[in-house]
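Postdoc handover notes: sequence design on the structure in folder B. Input tokens:
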């Protein structure tokens, strides 16, 4: 078992749904249970998920994807829009970002509904709200996206002072600089005397690598 053991002996032996709690521990700042179902399937699960939702064993339900990237993406989505104890809740559920109610159904049904709509996550892809990044996780506003697409879809950072993502001022040279990040690599697009020229270079790169020009919203 991974993680730091904590003292919560009263939880050991309790039954939630068809899970029996064998141990309790801390991992990444959250409380986890080591549980076993009636058929002997053992797994580590977040304590709050089991206590409040009573999820049953996905393996017993014939769902072999419960440990997959797809399941992890779904579970992370559910946690950040519904669980006040999740580290990302303040950026999602707390400000009204939710998801389709069918994807929140208990006992594995929510995941099955989600999988039916989204399909399995491609290698290296995670769920992304698109095209309306201020909207929730609903049919028509979700996709599987690469890290580059996720980064491209984010709001302009608070450290950006030019007003345009990917464009900044080079104090040493007295020129505007344009750049873009693709597959976690920064691509230098040039230095320009005019701000408009740097913006144009950035927009051309956005069309080349992402097929669209980024809509600038509020800062992160």
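Designed sequence:
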């Amino acid at each position: 078992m991974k993680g730091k053991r904590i003292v919560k002996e009263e939880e050991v032996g309790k039954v939630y749904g068809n899970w029996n709690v064998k141990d309790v521990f801390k991992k990444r700042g959250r409380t986890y249970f080591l549980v076993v179902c009636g058929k002997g399937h053992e797994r580590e699960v977040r304590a709050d998920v089991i206590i409040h939702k009573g999820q049953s064993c996905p393996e017993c339900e014939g769902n072999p994807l419960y440990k997959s990237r797809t399941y992890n993406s779904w579970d992370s989505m559910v946690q950040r829009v519904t669980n006040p104890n999740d580290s990302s809740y303040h950026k999602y559920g707390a400000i009204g970002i939710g998801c389709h109610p069918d994807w929140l159904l208990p006992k594995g049904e929510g995941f099955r509904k989600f999988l039916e709509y989204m399909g399995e996550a491609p290698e290296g892809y995670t769920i992304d709200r698109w095209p309306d990044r201020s909207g929730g996780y609903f049919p028509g506003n979700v996709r599987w996206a690469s890290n580059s697409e996720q980064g491209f879809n984010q709001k302009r950072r608070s450290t950006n002072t030019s007003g345009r993502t990917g464009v900044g001022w080079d104090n040493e040279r007295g020129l505007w600089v344009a750049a873009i990040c693709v597959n976690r690599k920064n691509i230098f697009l040039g230095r320009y005397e005019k701000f408009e020229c740097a913006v144009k270079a950035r927009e051309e790169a956005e069309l080349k690598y992402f097929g669209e020009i980024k809509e600038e919203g509020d800062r992160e």
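Context for whoever picks this up: Residues 1-61 form one domain. Don't rerun without checking with the PI first.
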